[in-house]
Amino acid sequence: MKITRNYILFLGLICSLPVLAQNDTLNVLDEVFLTDTKLKDFSTGQQVTVLNDSVLKKNGALLTSALNFNTNIYFKENGLGMVSSPSFRGTTASQTAVLWNGININSQFNGQTDFNTLNAGGFDNISVRGGGGSVVYGTGAIGGTIHLNTNLDFSGKTKQDIFFQYGSFNTMDARYKIKTSGNKWSLSLAAERNSSDNDYEWPIEGRKNENGEFYNNNLNLGFAYRLNEKNTLKFYSEIFDGERHFSLIRPSETKTKYQNFDTRNLLEWVSEFGDFISVARLALLDENYRYYANIATENYSSGEAQTLIGKYDLNYSVSKTLELNAVLTNTYTDGNGSGITENTRNIFSSAVLMKHRPFQKFQYELGIRKELTDNYESPLLFSAGTHYEFTDFYSLKMNISRNFRIPTYNDLYWAGAGNPDLNPETSNQVELGNHFKHKNFKFSLTGYYIQIDDMIRWLPSETGMWRPRNEESVETYGIEVLSGWQKQIFKGHQISASGTYAYTVSENMNTGYQLIYVPFHKATGALTYAFKDFSIDYQLLYNGEVFTRSDNNSRYNMEAYLVSNLGLSYNFGKKNTYKIGARVLNFFDEEYQSVEDRWMPGRNFNIYLNLNF
Amino acid sequence: MKRISKLLTMAILSGFFLNSCSSDDDIVDPIEEPQPEQAYSDGFFVLNEGSSGGGSVTFIDNDLQNVEHEIYQQVNVEDDPGQYIQSIFFNENLAYIVSNGSNMITIVDRYTFEYVDRIDSGLLSPRYGVIENGKIYVTNQGNYEAPGVTEFDDFIAIIDLETLEIEKTIETNTVLEYIHEEDGLIYVQKAAFGAGNEIAVIDSNSDEIITTIGTEETLNSFEIEDGVLYALSSNKLEKIDLVTGEPLVEFEINSDAGSAGKLEFENDMIYYTIGNSVFMMDESADTVPEEALFSYTSNSDYGVMYGFEVKNDRIYIADGGDFASNSFVEIYTTSGELIENIEVGVGPNGFYFND
Question: How far apart are the first and last CA of chain B?
């Protein structure tokens, strides 16, 4: 406990120093400058929450933590840093789509994104959009979409950001970012390293988290060049290299580890002529994993998939109030792996979108999408959204859509078991959002209903071989609340607060039971108080109890938990922001698990230095 | 093999851990009276493999009236017998509970279920065990690698009964499953998951494989009775001379309902299952029965007839259910009449008689 004492000393030290901090609670409803322009232009009737850079620095580099503490999304995490799967609005892990600068990056193999295989530090902001989005974003956009964005500007300024954090369990989070630009060009470069021994003590006598160590290195690049007034070229690139050991429930278990190496490249040509904006995109995604079922041997199973996406997007402004947009996409994937013979698949899709604002207070949008592929029967997807501003402080949003999740490589091509006759999972959904705004206070209340059919499940066939089938239907509905408030109370005193709450019912329509690992209640909160150069912030996460048994036998429920983080920072810069800070995570030392027998860390500490110049 | 390795990979890589376990130590059915010292005699144990957390053991008395759940967790608070418990074997007053997922064998007093000791190193995906000649013989399936990835992945661990230290391992290049003892010889099934056609014979004095008996491909279970080895594969029942290894008789089993499995020999009768049906034939019969003795109703997607046993004129069936909630066992007479349906834990896979 010597280390603890040192942290407390350090905390005391910075408290005694003199204080301003930027507003760094969560932004609700704000619009930002994005590459993923569709997010801004075609989200009518839906809500977009933005986690900016300063929020992303609060919860470490694991993206799970940042999203868990700031959004309605529920995460099932097999111990800190381990496999993490989201449930957005009660849906399954493959029904949340992750977009990297507008490109869908869910795994070709299992259709999901593991949120501990992304480094939060690589992005300028992360946006979360609740509800369906398959018309624009394709497969998996049922519960909602998560957008990882790199921003480029032509301000002519150079900004650097150095962030170094060190904490309990030998956890290191180092980030460097530079943004620089001229009149004609813009560059953004970000590099991160995150590693941890992750050997925290369990609340069981003599036990600790074993074989949980991990590291990852991440590099993000964005570059734009203006050819002339009308034409701009942009290039985005990301390299992620990570290794995680998977922690054990008992020391006698076989130790395993997982490596992934993913690269993503996107070339974009934006051209404006008259009332048209044309965007041509070419993206190359490469995902690689190796799974070592026993780290004592050098044997592993693996998979690699390369995806080449060509996209053409033409936007036509018919008038100031009417916009038409056509998007043609061709996605070609070549994948193979230990259980998968090499297979290629090609999917062509066309989408047409329209946005109209007939009155100042009323706008609506419509979209349809259809895919052409040999792989599956492609349903016609659609979305319709409206937004009506009744008064300055109240507006109503509504969105109806049909979305899908296509069969994955594993589903289709697993050697001897893949089922080529699978249909996509399809959802029909509707949501209604009430949005209130008064001075510095924002509040929204959204109700939604989703019915998902043809859910893909792996079951044994007559011969005993496991094969995927379109089997189940799930009905999910609930309420989401998002709120934010900020105020300068006295000169130099700034206070801001934000909160989310979700009530979620997600039922298997065959049995009528709530799905396991979907809590009825989840809430988050954040409070920041800044005085001059000092800032103190508090974060809270509440997850209600979840069923772990499919018959909802409450005797085996995972208990609810409430986790709090407390942070302090001091800006010692004059012109620039030079911050030092410290955080206490799980301040009240809550003993909790998000998955049975997978303990999460108790109270732990970190200190950081953040230089902006 | 392929099935399991795929499952494991899928389970791990998909992040779809749609499962649960039972680390809870609460007592579901409080026992009204203090337990007598020999709490678990005159009855049988149902082994519930559990899902990602710990498995559990249900005790049912011979009258089928008293049922106690999670007896290990009741007696040994704050502990469980491990993940995916696979089997139990007995020696004198001890029971050895094999946990496939936790690579360990928990040793308890078979009458009180109090913890005695634990073997928790050197095992890798252990399956079944027997005790002979002061040694424990345990089959291990290693890393569930696809055949040919490494030559010797599966092994038999030979453990000193007193020190519980592994004395020796015998590696094989095929998957290993059931293990039986007969007259000082250890018979190990070198087949599982619909592949394999051999039974290795180990001399418990030299601890060497002295011979290997060939069977039909897709061997899934075997029994030894009066010098005859009965080997069951998907479509064939063979009688093999135990000494010479020569086939004596073989029966074709053809059914549209699926593959034959789960061979049992009891009171000169042979029992096996196809899908949700139980078949019975006289040891001396010339043909296999065309009609099932009885069938039971199952809604399980992948746990139909997950456990099967015949003992003392009763037939015991375990249904795996959905492996994410409590399931049930059914006890029948040997004429196929249902005596009792009893709720047990998650994924019941076997019956072990304690008398």
Answer: 35
Identify whether the C-beta of residue A234 lies closer than 8 Å to the C-beta of residue A267. yes
Which whole number is the average pLDDT over B190-213? 93
**Measured CA angle at A202 (ends A197, A207), to 5 deg:** 90
Q: Are B212 and B224 in contact (CB under 8 A)?
A: no
Do A240 and A265 contact (CB within 8 A), yes or no?
Answer: no
Contact call for A299 and B101, based on CB within 8 A = no
Q: Residue A462: list chain B partners with CB under 8 A.
A: 258
A516 touches chain B (CB under 8 A): yes
Residue A460 touches partner B, C-beta closer than 8 Å: yes
Question: Within 13 A of A207's CA, how many CA atoms are on the CB side?
Answer: 19
Cβ count within 10 A of residue A460: 16
Q: What are A509-537's pLDDT values in tens digits?
A: 988 999 999 999 999 999 999 998 999 99
**Interchain CB distance below 8 Å, B149 and A109:** no
What is the model's pTM? 0.85
Cα atoms in the Cβ-side hemisphere of radius 13 Å centred on A583: 21
Burial (CB count within 10 angstroms: exposed 0-12, middle 13-18, buried 19+), residue B23: buried
Tell me how crowded residue A554 is: count the other CB atoms within 10 A of its CB: 10
pLDDT in tens, B47-62: 999 986 689 999 999 9
| Strand residues in A84-137 grouped as ranges (E) | 84-87, 96-100, 103-104, 125-130
Cβ distance of A110 and B6 shorter than 8 Å? no
Q: Is the pLDDT of residue B65 over 80?
A: yes
Binned at pLDDT 50, 70 and 90, residue B332 comes out as: very high
Q: What pLDDT digit, counting tens, does each position of A181-192 carry?
A: 998 999 999 999
d(CA B222, CA B225): 10
Give A-chain residues touching B19 at CB under 8 angstroms.
Answer: 548
pLDDT digits (tens, 9 = 90+) for A206-221: 899 999 999 999 999 9
- What dihedral do alpha carbons A94, A98, A103, A104 form, nearest 10°? 0
Residue A289, classed as helix, strand or coil, is strand
A553 part of contact set with chain B, CB < 8 Å = yes
Summarised one tens digit per residue, pLDDT across range A42-80 is: 888 898 999 988 889 999 899 999 999 999 999 999 999
Angle at A53 between CA A51 and CA A56, to 5 degrees: 65
Q: How far is A334 from chain B (nearest CA, A)?
A: 19
Task: Tell me the pairing of strands A96-100 and A144-149.
Answer: parallel
Closest Cα to residue A49, out of A35, A67, A74? A67
Tokens of A499: 């909160």
- In the predicted structure, residue A23 carries a pLDDT above the cut 70: no
- B327's enclosing H/E stretch is strand B326-333
Of all residues in chain B, the one with the smallest CA distance to A82 is B15
**A361 reaches B (C-beta below 8 A):** no
Does residue A377 sit at the B interface (CB-CB below 8 Å)? no
For B316-342, what is the mean pLDDT? Answer: 94
Closest CA in chain A for residue B345:
A549
Query: Cβ contacts of residue A174 below 8 Å, gap of 6+?
Result: A163, A164, A165, A192, A193, A194
Rounded to a whole number of angstroms, the distance from the CA of A454 to the nearest CA of chain B is: 17
Please give the average per-residue pLDDT across B7-26, as a whole number.
Answer: 39
| A 70-129 residues inside an 8 A Cβ radius of B | 76, 78, 83-85, 92-93, 109-110, 112, 114
Is B13 exposed, middle or buried, given 0-12, 13-18 or 19+ CB atoms closer than 10 A?
buried
For B6, the closest of A92, A289, A417 (CB atoms) is: A417
Determine the Cα–Cα distance for residues B103 and B117; give it in Å rounded to an integer: 14
Q: Which residues of A touch B29 (CB under 8 A)?
A: none
Residue A22 has pLDDT above 80, yes or no: no
